[in-house]
Every structure is written in structure tokens, then in C-alpha cells.
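agent> Task received from the user: take the single chain below, predict its 3D structure, and emit C-alpha cells. No templates, no multimer pairing.
agent> Plan: (1) validate residues, (2) run structure prediction, (3) serialize to C-alpha cells, (4) report one or two observations.
agent> Step 1 OK, no nonstandard residues flagged.
tool_call: predict_structure(input=
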Amino acid sequence: MDTNDRTPKISVVVPIYNAENTLCRCLDSIIRQTFTDFELILVNDGSTDHSASICQQYAEEHAFISIVEKANGGVSSARNAGMDRAKGEFITFVDADDEVTPDY
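)
tool_result: status=success, residues=104
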């Protein structure tokens, strides 16, 4: 389903800065949610490692994932950029080094 054509219940925003070592674990835990009416917004905050390519790979595999690319401005700036893109009725944040349980 194309996220541009629907309004998800929840927008999950993940601010990312040089998180290549933890990012896959984080994203996999979000993707495995039992609740599925959500969009996942990855905000690459000027990473200089392989975080951007990891984001791109996940976005290509999952239509509910979108990417925001921005110059480094810190976690608050990244969260705000994600909120600007969010379409969900509710917004939540997960840091790139977090792992959430399936019923998060």
C-alpha cells in the first residue's frame, strides 16, 4: 500500500545520525510490530557512515517507510523534520539505537 494514499493511525519517527551499528536491529524491531497501521519515517540527520544506504534499502523493501534527508542539526531538529512529514493521527519517536517489543 502506498503511504501517500492513506492516513496511518501512527507515525513512527526515527532520527538517525551515524547509527549503522544499531539501525538494522532498530528497524527490524519496528517492522515486526503486531499493530500494522503505521508509517515509518526515517530522518537521516547528515550521517557520514552507511546509515543512509541502510535507510534506502529498508525503504525499497517496505512501502510504509519514507526517508527524510537533512543536514546535521541534532536530534530535536531531526524529530521536528519527521513531524513535518508525519501523516498519522498520533506520533511516536524511536531512537536509532533502541529496540522495541512486538507490541510496542
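agent> Step 4: summary for the user.
The two ends are 22 Å apart (CA to CA).
agent> Done.
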